[in-house]
């Protein structure tokens, strides 16, 4: 390689700003909604997400988040032929807790696909693409009604479950976000706390929805994002905030954003961003928002039957007051050819 060419490359690299935010090859994975990504001490990023057929749970891993779409992958579980866990396999999240892997997911029945509940799988292997995933049954939330989108996190020596459920006294089909302490990775203890219900107009477009909580602990605070409205271009993220040292099971500890913190952008061609998770760069210096979105606005028919919610990622900026600035969903690196 000519010396002059090498010198030009070196000069270009030196010209990059220090600590420049990573740029991702969006979409990272085609036709994977509700993405959950975790970076583990073994150096791998692990991804679980909803497949458009709603029939299976797949685990992917790669050492580079940009390579997760082409990384190792394995279908670790498939829906049952009938009965519980035979339809609507949604929103799997994989967490490493006390030396074991757990996948929390949503499932319905073939004869009632929208009568959904929370379920758990467990695997004791070090590598979740190996070993045996055992069904550990339903994760009970205290009442038997429409429930989905479980996540978990630990702080202050306690582990919590957050999830979406239809309030027991609700007279309409709306969903809210709840939180409870966990006594084991398979169960909650004590009463559930109602964190948020749809109240702003942007949370009630077509459907009254607060769902898909995700947790980010930073700068002495706990940030919980959630998704609102129908799963089309109206889908958007809201956010709750509490002090990390507060009683997180006291609803009064939380404040709620009055406006969406992340929403569709005609400028970048991204629509319905939501159902996110959080991870970091390998050095832990940059926080990353992982989410799904479509590259077109108008969807014929039911948006849940449109398969083209793709997994995407972008770096998070931080404001001077210590709160996250998600900006707007960035444009895809290449044209999306999946549009119907």
Automatic annotation (TrEMBL):
Keyword Magnesium assigned: no
Pfam families: Glyco_hydro_43
Signal peptide feature range: 1-20
Region spans: Disordered: 317-340
Protein's GO biological process: carbohydrate metabolic process
Domain of life: Bacteria
Example GO molecular function: hydrolase activity, hydrolyzing O-glycosyl compounds
InterPro entries: Alpha-L-arabinofuranosidase (IPR016828), Glyco_hydro_43 (IPR006710), Glyco_hydro_beta-prop_sf (IPR023296)
UniProt KW Signal keyword: yes
PANTHER family from the UniProt entry: GLYCOSYL HYDROLASE, HYDROLASE, FAMILY 43, PUTATIVE (AFU_ORTHOLOGUE AFUA_3G01660)-RELATED
Family membership: Belongs to the glycosyl hydrolase 43 family.
The protein's name in its UniProt record: Alpha-N-arabinofuranosidase
Organism name: Pseudoduganella umbonata
UniProt lineage: Bacteria, Pseudomonadati, Pseudomonadota, Betaproteobacteria, Burkholderiales
